[in-house]
Description:
CATH superfamily: HUPs
CATH topology: Rossmann fold
Structural class: alpha/beta
Number of strands: 5
CATH class: Alpha Beta
CATH architecture: 3-Layer(aba) Sandwich
Radius of gyration: 15 Å
Amino acid sequence: MKKSAIYPGTFDPITYGHIDVIKKGLKFIDKIIIAISDSNQKNQLFNTVERIEIVKNSLYKDIKFNKKKVKVISFNSLTTELCKKYKSNIILRGLRAVSDFEYEYQLSGMNKKLNKNIETIFLMSDVENQIISSKLVKEIINLDGDIKKFTTKSAISALKKKYE
């Protein structure tokens, strides 16, 4: 039986840290559904449609992921409901530092309470990408810094357009 996982987040914008988590997940998961949150709880730079486009361009054009193995969607529901919809019992989450763990641990516990069949898998990106955050990428480009080491060509292009 093929295993699929839901990888939820805002991806505002997607970074090499996110991409590391996807690459590592594909080593033992057959399909990863990148679920872009349509929630307005965070102050996003890009709207949902823009983030979907950036993620698709980054993953399919820049990185050359197989569309059969990586699907990009948006959602505005509980992640556990998304798992039900896509018949997945795995939530994939990335960890950068110890500070991420507390929040992610609490979130995984709540998801488990909502649906006891769901497991959360935590993956760390490679050391060189653990310091990357979407927030810092936006700050660096806003101050005319070079972000080539942190995200894809498609994301850089979209960011430059936003800050022109």
